UniProtKB/TrEMBL annotation:
A GO biological-process term: cilium assembly
Biased composition (Basic and acidic residues): 693-703, 749-765
Domain Rab-GAP TBC residues, every copy: 397-572
Organism: Diatraea saccharalis (sugarcane borer)
Region (Disordered): 693-730, 744-786
Keywords: Cell projection, Cilium biogenesis/degradation, Coiled coil, Cytoplasm, Cytoskeleton, Repeat, WD repeat
Domain of life: Eukaryota
Subcellular localization(s) per the UniProt record: Cytoplasm, Cytoskeleton, Cilium basal body; Cytoplasm, Cytoskeleton, Microtubule organizing center, Centrosome, Centriolar satellite
PANTHER family: TBC1 DOMAIN FAMILY MEMBER 31, WD REPEAT CONTAINING PROTEIN 3 WDR3
A Pfam cross-reference name: RabGAP-TBC
Name this protein carries in UniProt: TBC1 domain family member 31
Regions of compositional bias (Basic residues) in chain numbering: 717-726
């Protein structure tokens, strides 16, 4: 510690502390209190106990001389209060700023101390022996439990009175007593190897546990969610007990782990493990601390300081830190994440170490560049999924700089360049040729990458050519991974195979099974919110499907989206459904204020403010606490990565008959569109044939009428003309009808001219029908040319109309 006075004006002197950023042994800070006597000799005062406050990231430690040290990890400051008196136990008061409960050795008093001013605001008396245990109830914050080996007192802090007193007898003294994390029960461990459980509300005994295998019981510990209890003692046996079923879950023989007995046990919670802690810290009889993985039943780390053995240890409520009080009196403060990383880092160090050799050989090996295989092996060591998960649990997200590499490692993408090139060579898929008409994308590069990704997915599997929500689902991944198109495709394909299971079993209809799972989970954990949805007529298609189809991109900001997908890709496939339910539960208060269907539907299309830590923590709680009968993992397959090779495996999670029928209809429409020009050619031939026949008919009729009178000729000609109009009603061969249909706007002037021409012809026919007949006979060939030109005009107009379509 380095001392640095803040100001002479301040009544409280605070000093700077420096934490080790990358400790090899996990110790970020060591406390020791050394004083110098009047004769120049130095002596070390031993520390007795300590406690953590997670809400403010503070630590309080007491020594045997009556000094109290406060460490603030946020501001990196520490200060000291003198004259407090020797203390046996410490505990921060929940939900009260800077208030500490101190159990003093003298007179067995309980003092409430302000850590900023050092003033005592309240003192409780009533114990007859040194107090060893302090515990607060989670559901009744005004209830304080203090205990000595011979008695336990439950205090009511509203009026500072005793609520309940438990007296023991010789041979059955209290080894440990505490409130369960939920606060519903009070649990005590006695010297006669029994565990007694009382109901907190009425302090009635509900259960007594007498484990026959466990002798000389010393300590008990609870998981953060309170569903499991660990019991241990001087005999080499560890028992895990279920608080839900009141039955033993597992019995572990510690001798196989080289542990002769346990003096103290405590769970080390992870930040986002939902309270189902899987790492148990065991202080063995030989004063070493062992971290036991309860899933694999193996020791993942052993802490044995060189200077001294460990006398006791304390774990912070969130598991971020823990401290060890050494037998010589020092206090080592550990960062849990650094400690859990030590085994992995040691393996990496072993890879780097070489066998003994000459200095010349070492110099040559250092100068040679590493091969690609060696680099990949070292990256695999660093990208171990267990280590990555611990990093995620500690910091809440992956580093931005290495996120793409970490996602590649988590999804185990094969880097199939040949297979990906084969999909690229197929070009843009017709389904996504005009994707820019559906979305407004200002960046041409992003649009290009989106088209390429969707086309590759559609070429890989026909299903992805007809799913309307797919562009919205993959778009955020395009924004994040567009610099590496191969990684982008393989990541999205792997996500669709694993994290979108059962999404397409009823395609193109909504995934009924998925929506039913979400509704069942919501019903189990928040029935009131589900009732609100039912009253408003809201189904899971609104509060679940909309979120899933957009991959949370509509309801979360960019940074929140990245953090969420860090956790989704680091967990099983069921986590994404838990995240959907978690979002609804965390936003419960805002949703219940909405009454109409439209308001609630719009809510799930907007980015609403959300506490991301609470959101993720709730998702982990749902993942661990959901009943197995309705848990999605019961229906999901295990993770499958893409095959490495020259081609990708087929995607089969959809009904092929439905998709093939839809694709057939789509192809038929495309075929009709592609045959439009062939139909126009057929129409042209039909028009030419009809026009030629009509001209020949008119020429024959004019020739026959040459020997008739003018009136007969005119009368017959008019009758034939009318008859021709009647027979050709609805026919597309007449020039006037074609002009009206094909040129409704552009040829309106020509249409009027044709009417005027017809009127003039009738007047001329009344004057000289013979000359008109001769002119018709002579101009028959000219009309053929004129009509051919008109047909060409019609074809040009038809081609223009096709382009417009």
């Amino acid at each position: 510690m380095e001392q640095d006075k803040r100001s002479d004006k301040d009544s409280l002197e605070k000093f700077d502390i420096k934490l080790k950023s990358r400790p090899k042994d996990g110790v970020i800070l060591q406390l020791h209190h050394t004083v110098r006597g009047s004769n120049g000799e130095t002596r070390r005062i031993r520390f007795s106990t300590g406690t953590f406050d997670d809400s403010q990231e503070k630590l309080a430690c007491a020594d045997n001389a009556g000094n109290l040290f406060i460490l603030d990890f946020t501001d990196l400051k520490f200060w000291k209060h003198t004259g407090v008196g020797p203390s046996n136990a410490l505990h921060f008061v929940p939900n009260k700023l800077d208030m500490l409960v101190v159990a003093k050795s003298k007179n067995f008093e309980i003092s409430f101390l302000d850590i900023e001013t050092g003033q005592t605001s309240l003192t409780l008396t009533g114990h007859t022996a040194p107090i060893k245990h302090i515990s607060f109830s989670n559901n009744k914050l005004n209830n304080l439990l203090t205990a000595s080996p011979v008695e336990a007192i439950l205090w009511e802090l509203r009026n500072y009175t005793k609520y309940f007193t438990l007296n023991t007898y010789l041979g059955a003294q209290i080894q440990q007593i505490m409130f369960m994390p939920g606060g519903d029960y009070l649990v005590a461990c006695f010297q006669n190897d029994t565990v007694q459980i009382w109901k907190h509300e009425n302090m009635k005994s509900v259960k007594q546990i007498i484990p026959s295998e466990l002798k000389h019981m010393k300590s008990i510990a609870f998981t953060m969610n309170g569903r499991a209890m660990a019991m241990s003692g001087l005999s080499p046996t560890l028992i895990l007990f279920s608080m839900d079923t009141w039955k033993a879950l597992k019995s572990i023989n510690l001798t196989k782990l080289n542990i002769s007995g346990a003096q103290q046990v405590a769970f080390i919670p992870q930040v986002f493990d939902g309270g189902a802690n899987k790492i148990l810290a065991i202080l063995s009889s030989d004063c070493t601390l062992n971290l036991l993985d309860l899933e694999s039943v193996s020791i993942i780390q052993t802490i044995c300081p060189e200077s001294s053995g460990i006398r006791k240890f304390v774990v912070s409520p969130s598991g971020k830190y823990f401290l060890c009080v050494l037998q010589l009196g020092e206090v080592n403060i550990y960062n849990s994440a650094h400690v859990l990383d030590i085994p992995q880092s040691a393996k990496v160090d072993n890879v780097k170490e070489e066998t003994p050799s000459t200095s010349a050989h070492r110099n040559v090996s250092q100068d040679l560049p590493l091969s690609k295989v060696e680099i990949e092996q070292k990256m695999k060591c660093c990208m171990d999924s267990a280590r990555l998960r611990r990093i995620l649990m500690q910091y809440g997200e992956y580093p931005e700089k290495f996120r793409s590499a970490i996602w590649r490692s988590l999804l185990n993408t094969p880097k199939n360049k040949v297979a990906y090139s084969a999909l690229i060579d197929k070009g843009i898929h017709p389904s996504y040729k005009d994707i820019e008409k559906q979305f407004t994308i200002h960046s041409s590069a992003t649009l290009k990458n989106l088209k390429r990704l969707l086309s590759c997915l559609a070429h890989w599997c026909p299903l992805f050519a007809v799913m309307k929500f797919l562009p919205e689902f993959v778009f955020p991944f395009v924004k994040v991974l567009q610099k590496d198109p191969l990684l982008l495709f393989e990541c999205v394909a792997t996500i669709l195979m694993n994290y979108c299971q059962l999404w397409f079993e009823y395609a193109p209809f909504p995934p009924i099974s998925i929506l039913a799972m979400v509704e069942n989970i919501l019903a189990e954990h928040d029935q009131h919110l589900l009732n609100h949805y039912c009253e408003a007529g809201i189904t899971s298609q609104t509060y679940a499907l909309k979120i899933l189809e957009t991959a949370f991109s509509e309801v979360l900001s960019c940074s929140e989206w990245l953090i969420l997908w860090d956790h989704i890709l680091s967990n099983e496939a069921a986590f994404i459904l838990m995240a959907v339910v978690s979002y609804n539960i965390v936003q419960r208060n805002a949703i219940k204020r909405l009454t109409t269907h439209e308001q609630i539907e719009n809510f799930f299309h907007l980015q609403n403010p959300i506490d991301k830590k609470l959101f993720l923590k709730k998702a982990y709680v749902l993942l661990n606490d959901t009943d197995e009968d309705i848990h999605p993992r019961k229906f999901f397959n295990s993770f499958i990565s893409l095959d490495k090779g020259d081609c990708y495996q087929q995607f089969t999670g959809y009904p092929k008959a439905t998709i093939c029928l839809k694709l057939a209809k789509k192809e038929k429409k495309q075929e009709v569109k592609s045959n439009k020009y062939t139909l126009r050619e057929l129409t042209k031939k039909t028009q030419e044939k009809e026009i030629s026949e009509r001209l020949q008919l008119e020429a024959d009729s004019d020739a026959k009428s040459m020997n008739s009178s003018y009136e007969e000729c005119d009368h017959k000609h008019l009758n034939k003309t009318r008859k021709g109009h009647q027979n050709s009603k609805g026919d597309l061969c007449t020039k006037e009808f074609l002009e009206n249909v094909m040129f409704p706007k552009h040829n309106s002037k020509n249409h009027e001219d044709s009417k005027c021409t017809k009127k003039d012809k009738d007047d001329n026919m009344n004057k000289s029908s013979i000359s008109k007949t001769k002119k018709r006979v002579q101009s028959a060939s000219k009309k053929n040319d004129t009509l051919e030109k008109e047909v060409k005009k019609l074809l040009v107009a038809a081609s223009n109309s096709d382009v417009t379509e």
